[in-house]
Design goal:
two-stranded antiparallel ribbon, mainly alpha, 449 residues, Purine permease, 4 strands, transmembrane
């Protein structure tokens, strides 16, 4: 009788279309690079923005970007390969997702960096990670508070609140003595034109890497205009281990509240990415243990990231899009992408090179990203019928969130902590209002009775 057992070492390679197993390196490498190309700009840009707001030195800016790459890699590996599996519980989603520094936290992080420091952001991140862990364990009961009308309103507000950041960057950055010069605007619109052109007319790699290619083209164009300063690269080392606790950790109550609310919302939002991954590439819904393990690990990895000096991470939707389009779900492919990010995180010269990208070029490239965030929010909102009740939830939440943040003087008679939580970023008020209005306002059927 023929045995089905294969001797050790004779097992055939796994397919890149299988979740488990190890595919051939020659197949995995180009697919992994595709993921890196799609997310690396988005991964480091929040750190560049926050470093600018915080006014830290060039050396510290390199360390913050280095931590972004390193922490994104570690967070991705922890999600892909659960370190704990006990019956119906696992620590990590075990799904083909990529984690990266999230734009969702940028508005609130900017508000904190303006009045405090990066250590205060990292302290709030630890509290947010604890909130995410609690959400993960209670996901079945809490999920009802965050229907698409609520999460969509929050995501839409995040997109809107990022527009001024992109426009200020397009003008050269508010700290730049040449802020608003024609050279900055010319380089910004050139970069934007390349990104839009590739998005709408290119195919394959060029379409996938439109933002990266746009930044490279904009960088060269800006260099011709004399806007690129390479002096910082020479002083950066070739190899450096990330520096834990370099920025310190400070717990400031109002900052912790503002970031914790976002962690609760983004924990629920992660369900969308996990679901899109499984439905789009495996034709099934995610299992409860995958959702719970993914959200709990999201919280734990962010606590770890804070000690390593990295800003908050989250699932990256662009990489979800790659997985659902190509149907390449092998975890080793995405794990290899994480290893590439990890290696880049040990090379300060690479991080220093990223800091030389002119702000006008970053603004021209990222305004399209911020626009897509706002449109994602609108798509989520329209998953539910836009009746009078739901339009009231969206309209009032966004109006109050954006209105108060743009008229901070209206909170002048309130304590400083109230201004920090409610006045500096529109996302917190919009989130709280959307949740409350969704709970309080009667449904259409209730109104008809």
């Amino acid at each position: 009788m023929k045995s089905n057992h294969q001797p050790s070492g004779s097992k055939s390679r796994a397919s890149v279309f299988e979740l488990g197993g190890v595919p051939a390196f020659s197949q995995a490498l180009p697919l992994a690079l595709q993921h890196v190309v799609a997310m690396i700009v988005g991964c480091v840009t929040p750190s560049i923005i926050i470093a600018g707001v915080a006014g830290i030195s060039d050396a510290d800016r390199v360390i913050l970007i280095q931590a972004a790459l390193f922490c994104s890699a570690i967070s991705t590996l922890l999600q892909l390969f659960p370190i704990v599996r006990i019956k119906n519980f696992q620590l990590g989603s075990s799904l083909p997702v990529i984690m990266g520094i999230s734009f969702a936290y940028v508005p609130s992080m900017q508000a904190i960096a303006e009045v405090a420091d990066i250590g205060t952001i990292l302290g709030a991140q630890i509290v947010g990670g604890i909130v995410a862990i609690l959400v993960g364990f209670g996901i079945r009961k809490i999920r009802i508070l965050f229907p698409p009308i609520v999460t969509g309103t929050v995501v839409f507000t995040i997109g809107l609140s990022l527009y001024p950041t992109a426009v200020n960057y397009m003008a050269g950055g508010t700290s730049n003595p040449d802020y608003g010069s024609w050279k900055n605007w010319l380089a910004a619109f050139f970069t934007l034109a390349v990104v839009i052109g590739l998005n709408h007319f290119a195919r394959g790699f060029l379409k996938l890497a439109s933002i990266l290619v746009g930044i490279i083209a904009g960088y060269i164009f800006a260099a011709c205009l004399g806007l690129v300063d390479l002096s910082g690269i020479q002083s950066a080392g070739l190899f450096q281990v990330p520096q834990p606790l370099h920025f310190g950790i400070t717990f400031e109550p109002s900052s912790c509240v503002a970031i914790a609310i976002l962690f609760a919302v983004n924990s629920i939002q992660a369900i969308g990415d996990f679901s899109a991954t499984t439905v789009g590439s495996m034709n099934r819904d995610p299992e409860d243990k995958e959702l719970q393990g993914g959200i709990v690990m999201y919280g734990l990895s962010n606590i770890l990231d804070a000690f390593l000096g990295g800003l908050p991470t989250a699932t990256y939707s662009q990489n979800v899009g790659i997985v659902t389009t190509t149907k390449v779900i092998n975890r080793c492919v995405l794990g290899l992408a994480a290893v590439i990010l990890l290696i880049a995180g040990f090379v300060p010269k690479f991080s220093a090179l990223l800091t030389t990208i002119p702000q006008c070029v970053l603004g021209g490239a990222t305004i399209s990203v911020f626009a897509s965030i706002a449109m994602t929010g609108i798509k989520l909102i329209f998953r539910q019928e836009m009746n009078y009740r739901n339009t009231s939830i969206v309209g009032l939440s966004v109006a109050l969130g954006m209105g108060v943040s743009q008229a901070q003087a209206s909170l002048a008679q309130f304590p400083e902590w109230a201004t920090m939580i409610f006045g500096r970023s529109p996302v917190v008020i919009a989130t709280i209002m959307a949740i409350l209005l969704n709970l309080i306002l009667p449904g259409e059927k209730a109104q008809e009775k």
